[in-house]
Amino acid sequence: AVLPDSLPGLWPKDDSGVKLSDMYKWFDGTHSYQEQTEPGYPAEARPIPKVDFNLVKKAVAKAVEGGALWLVFGNDSVLGETPTDLQLDPDASLHRPPEQLKAIEFLPSSLPGAWSNDAEPTATVAGIYAEIKAKNGRPWPAKQFLDMLNAAIGQGFMRRANGSGPISSLQHDGDVELIIKAEAPKPIEPTPIVPGRRASTLALLNAAEVQDFADQIHVLTKSLAGSDLQIEVRVSVKEKSGANLEEASAVLHGVKTGWRF
């Protein structure tokens, strides 16, 4: 009952969010939400019954714990975890859950203020978190930030400068230094055709043709069932095209470890 889709006309359509104190008022017995009964027809006002604020508070806490609402209070940012009573302050703001961060959003191309200008850029966990907070205008949910940061480390986008193991806490691991190593992995060489295997002719595909090929993979796999299908792929671009090869390499590496320009 407290989610944005359940209270149209009261929740803002953008990501500005609402204060918990305002949500308490919505359930004071004097407010209505706007129900769209038929496409193209004006919405109809539906009264919201009066509910004790403690029940509303419990519903909000459950929604935050379940990842359906995002709570921000000061520097605290909670999503997918149970908020504390202190965090469930009337001045806390509630938002729709943010989109999941991507590994490339941790790199210097996306967060130049967090990384050094060295040949092998370095940054701290706290510095990366602070830049993401500044870029998005509010502190990011800690659990989602740490999960994605550890995923980026596991995929090889960066590594710990010292020590090992996952980053488990902003409070205790904020000073952990991360580094992007300059050495490139060995390029993936074409697999030689060994006796007993057959290969197609080579083909140069543009992006649209690659998509067409992907759409036909299931047909190809079916016709070649049991034959240990392997596919060799190389991406090439014009030099001095202005392309962001670092970001592109991160995308390729996310698909296949070691794949890059």
Essential attributes:
single chain, extended
- How much helix, percentage-wise, in residues? 25-40%
Give the C-alpha Rg. 25 Å
Side by side, the strands of the main sheet go 1-6-4-5
Element-level helix/strand string: EHEEHEEEEHHEHEHHH
Strand elements, count: 9
Basic shape: extended
Task: Characterize the largest beta sheet: strand count, sense, and whether it forms a barrel.
Answer: 4 strands, antiparallel
Low-pLDDT sequence parts? none
Rounded to the nearest angstrom, the distance between the terminal CA atoms is 50 Å
The amount of beta strand, in percent, is 5-15%
Which structural category do the helix and sheet elements fall into?
A: alpha+beta
Global mean pLDDT? 86
Number of helices: 8
